[in-house]
Specification:
By secondary structure, this protein is of the alpha/beta class. It has helices at residues 13-23, 41-56, 99-114, 143-149, 170-174, 212-230, 266-286, 306-318, 333-338, 364-387, and strands spanning 60-63, 69-72, 80-86, 123-128, 157-165, 178-184, 186-195, 199-200, 235-244, 250-251, 254-263, 290-299, 302-303, 323-328, 343-348. Helix 1 runs antiparallel to helix 3 and helix 8 (306-318) crosses helix 10. The two termini are 13 Å apart. Bound molecules: zinc ion (ZN).
Length: 388
């Protein structure tokens, strides 16, 4: 059996773009965004439509217990490369997050199948259920991919590839069309409580205050510099802060904040945790306060498979684009699969870096190039396997 060395097969740009737009009809909003929350009627109808498109392509569709959608060639092998992404959106989401990787996977599989390419038998498409965790009762995200990774079905998966929009501005800024994602940042969150003394905002002299609010604010202000000194690529966010009792005429007796750090280095995340504790003690003491620092969650760094990443680089070059390597600062189903099978991701740029927003977009030529890159990657994977 000989496998063609890519380039002679092309995804159908029109069909790809039509199907991405067709899928966005499910949960479409007047502002161009999409509300396709996992488990909602729009999500159920969208997944039923997806299965119809699978059948129309002459492929075998299936759904597992949790609601993940799969497609395979009718004569697909038992061990295969899985590729896809998620079918749900956040409330007020865009048309590409998740959907793009699912529809591109379908386009790749049907292109291979209709051309009777031998790689068609070695690849399957998936659309994972509830990646976003946006339902009020959702226990966090990555629900479908986690259920699949823990099921008997994972035994057939040799490797996983996920094509996704970047959801940030790095690629557009740098002028990159395609990127091989090396891994996903680890995320550590800390709850900090400053304990001071609530008192009258007028009668308490400045030098006699134990102002927990000021201590928490001073800490928040220092965190950017602390993070940058440890890892210039680290991002830090104080997205929650609360003063108690929270009245304009009362010096806060207690203040709470949550600091979140994301980095591609576990070492840097550990170091910033220590630095945070030290800084919290220092600013608390300066305000006559005491402090508690608790790490409330820690998601480890995901490192994608080095061999797959190298293979993707070859394939992406062939798909004609400036391929580079970068880290993902957002979570993806690929992080779940990476714990079980060799996994890697491809990114295309996001216009203005906007995502989880109705304005989310990527220029059509880049969407097509990304799908072509996925096709080249699948062919490269299959031919490497045959060579082995
Ligand atoms: Zn996504």
């Amino acid at each position: 059996m000989t496998l063609s060395q890519g380039t002679d097969l092309q995804v159908c740009a029109e069909r790809l773009l039509d199907d991405i737009a067709g899928f966005a009809k499910f949960g479409e909003r007047p502002d161009g965004g999409v509300d396709r929350i996992a488990g909602s009627p729009a999500d159920l109808e969208g997944r039923a439509w997806l299965l119809r498109r699978v059948a129309e392509a002459g492929l075998a569709g299936s759904t597992d217990e949790i609601g993940n959608v799969f497609a395979a060639a009718p004569d697909g092998e038992d061990r295969y490369l899985l590729t896809g992404s998620h079918t749900d959106t956040v409330p007020g989401g865009g048309w590409l997050d998740g959907a793009y990787g699912v529809i591109a996977a379908l386009e790749v599989l049907r292109t291979l199948h209709e051309n009777r390419h031998p790689a068609a038998r070695m690849v399957r498409m998936t659309g994972f259920f509830d990646e976003e965790g946006a339902r009020p009762d959702s226990p966090g995200g990555l629900i479908g991919s986690t259920a699949f990774a823990d099921s008997a079905g994972i035994a057939g998966v040799e490797a996983f590839l996920e094509l996704h929009i970047e959801q940030g501005p790095r690629m557009e800024t740098a002028g990159w069309d395609l990127a091989v994602v090396q891994g996903i940042v680890g995320i550590d969150r800390y709850a900090v409580t400053m304990n001071g003394s609530a008192n009258h905002a007028g009668t308490t002299p400045m030098r006699q205050r134990a102002d927990a609010g000021m201590a928490a604010t001073n800490l928040a202000v220092r965190l950017r510099q602390i993070a940058a000194a440890i890892d210039p690529a680290m991002v830090v966010t104080v997205g929650f802060m609360e003063f108690v009792p929270g009245a304009p005429n009362v010096i806060p007796g207690e203040a709470r904040l949550v600091a979140e750090f994301r980095s591609g280095s576990e070492h840097a995340l550990d170091a910033v945790g220590s630095a945070l504790r030290y800084a919290a003690q220092t600013v608390a003491a300066a305000e006559r306060c005491t402090c508690d620092v608790v790490r409330i969650s820690a998601k480890p760094v995901t490192v994608f498979d080095a061999r797959l990443c190298r293979m993707l680089e070859t394939a992406l070059d062939r798909a004609g684009g400036t391929a580079t390597r970068l880290l993902s600062y957002a979570g993806h189903d690929a992080s779940v699969l990476a714990a079980r099978v060799p996994t890697a991701m491809i990114f295309v740029p996001s216009t203005a870096g906007v995502s989880h927003n109705p304005k989310e977009d990527t220029p059509e030529p880049q969407l097509v190039r990304g799908a072509q890159a996925l096709l080249e990657s699948v062919i490269e994977y299959a031919s490497a396997k045959v060579r082995v």
